[in-house]
Design goal:
Blueprint lengths: L5 H6 L25 E5 L2 E4 H32 L6 H22 L10 H14 L4 H18 L8 H12 L2 E8 L6 H11 L3 H7 L5 E6 L22 H4 L3 E3 L8 E9 L6 H31 L7 H19 L18
Antiparallel strand pairs: 1-2, 3-4, 3-6, 5-6
Helix pairs in contact: 2-5, 2-11, 3-4, 3-5, 5-10, 6-10
Length: about 350
C-alpha cells in the first residue's frame, strides 16, 4: 500500500494548457475552496477541519486499509497492462447477484419453486450490505477489487482433476447435506454462546439470531463426519436441542478464541437429482477453474499487501498504526492487557 499508486491519485484534476504559437494561454480559474463550515446545528458552526479530524480518528485506519487494498489491486492491474473499467465492475456485481439466486435455488428445492429475479437478488444484496454497515462507496470498491483479482488471476489457479469434477457433481446434484456456516465474531466467543444455550435452553440458531450472527448455507458430502475427536484444533459439542440428526454437525471448529472460528449447523438432507454427469461435466470444470483462479488472486493480493511499503504522513493515522502494533504485541504475550486507544489527535507542531 503506502505510496504505491497514490501519486496518480493526487495528480487527478491537475491539467496544463500548452502555449500555442505566440497566442494567449487561456486562464483557468482555480476550483473554489470548500466552505470551512461544514454545517450548523442550532446556529453553531461545525467546522470542516474539526469534523474531518474526528472522522479520521474514528474510522481513518479502517477506510485507509480498504482504500489501500484498492490502490494496490489497481496498481497491479496497471503493471500487467489490464484496464479495469465500469463494465468490468458491473460484471462483478451481476456475478454477486447470480450467486445469491443460486443460493436461493439451492435452499428451495420444491418442484414448483419460482426462480429469484434480479430485483429480488438486488434487495437481498442491499439488505446484507446494510447489515454489514457498508456504504455505497465501499460496495463499489469491493466490486472493483473483485474485478482486479479476476483479471489478474485468470488461468493462474491450480489444475483441476477429473476427481475434483466428480466430487463437485456429487455436492451439487447428488444426495448431500445442507448446513449453515456461522463465522463467529470476535465480540462473542463460542464458549459464551454455548453457556447461553444451556442457560436459556435455546438452539444455536436462536442464540445466533439474538447476536445478529450471519450465516451462509453450503452443501457438504452426505458422508461427511464432524466428530469433535477429528478436529484439527480443540472442539466441543454443542447442546442438542435441534434433533439427533443435527447434533453430529453442531460443533465448533478450531479454537473458540480465534475470530476465524465457525459453527456448522445441519439444516436438511438434499436428495439426489436426475442430472447426468456427462451433461454438466464441462460446466462444472469451468466453475472449478474459476474458483481456483479466484483463490490464487486472493493469495496474490495478500502477498502484495504484506510486501507493500506503507508510510503514514498523517499524525492521526500514524497514532492508530502504533496503537494497533502495540495491541498486537501485547496480545501475543498478555491477551488480557491492552493499551488505551487514542481518542484524540496527537499534537502537531505549527508550521
Amino acid at each position: 500500500m503506502g505510496c504505491v499508486g497514490f501519486a496518480s491519485v493526487l495528480a487527478l484534476g491537475q491539467t496544463s494548457m500548452p502555449a500555442t504559437g505566440g497566442g494567449t494561454t487561456p486562464v483557468v480559474a482555480p476550483p473554489a475552496a470548500p466552505d470551512p463550515v461544514l454545517a450548523t446545528i442550532n446556529g453553531l458552526p461545525i467546522m470542516r477541519d474539526d469534523f474531518v479530524t474526528a472522522l479520521m480518528a474514528v474510522s481513518g485506519m479502517r477506510m485507509f486499509n480498504q482504500f489501500g487494498e484498492r490502490v494496490v489491486a489497481l496498481d497491479a492491474c496497471a503493471k500487467a497492462g489490464i484496464v479495469i473499467d465500469a463494465k468490468a465492475v458491473a460484471v462483478e456485481k451481476q456475478r454477486a447477484l447470480e450467486n445469491i439466486k443460486k443460493q436461493a435455488a439451492a435452499q428451495n428445492t420444491s418442484p414448483t419453486a419460482v426462480p429469484m429475479t434480479d430485483a429480488e437478488a438486488e434487495r437481498v444484496f442491499q439488505e446484507v450490505m446494510g447489515r454489514q454497515g457498508a456504504s455505497p462507496l465501499e460496495v463499489e470498491w469491493m466490486f472493483e477489487k473483485a474485478a482486479c483479482l479476476r483479471a489478474l488471476s485468470k488461468g493462474r489457479g491450480v489444475a483441476i482433476k477429473d476427481e475434483d469434477v466428480k466430487d463437485q457433481f456429487a455436492l451439487r446434484f447428488g444426495e448431500c447435506r445442507q448446513v449453515r456456516v456461522y463465522p463467529l465474531a470476535t465480540a462473542v466467543s463460542g464458549a459464551e454462546l454455548k453457556a447461553e444455550m444451556a442457560k436459556d435452553k435455546k438452539s444455536f440458531a436462536e442464540v445466533a439470531q439474538a447476536h445478529n450472527l450471519g450465516y451462509q448455507s453450503v452443501r457438504i458430502a452426505k458422508d461427511a463426519d464432524f466428530k469433535p475427536a477429528e478436529m484439527k484444533d480443540k472442539a466441543f459439542q454443542l447442546p442438542t436441542t435441534e434433533g439427533a440428526d443435527t447434533a453430529a454437525f453442531a460443533v465448533m471448529l478450531g479454537d473458540p478464541a480465534k475470530s476465524q472460528t465457525v459453527v456448522l449447523v445441519m439444516e436438511k438432507v438434499i436428495p439426489a437429482t436426475n442430472k447426468k454427469f456427462e451433461d454438466v461435466k464441462a460446466q462444472l470444470k469451468l466453475d472449478l477453474i474459476e474458483e481456483a483462479d479466484v483463490r490464487w488472486g486472493q493469495e496474490h493480493l495478500r502477498n502484495l499487501l504484506v510486501n507493500a511499503k506503507v508510510e503514514f504522513h498523517d499524525p492521526v493515522l500514524n497514532a492508530q498504526k502504533k496503537y494497533l502494533e502495540e495491541m498486537q504485541r501485547r496480545n501475543a504475550t498478555q491477551p488480557a492487557t491492552l493499551p488505551a486507544a487514542p481518542t484524540t489527535a496527537p499534537a502537531v507542531a505549527p508550521k
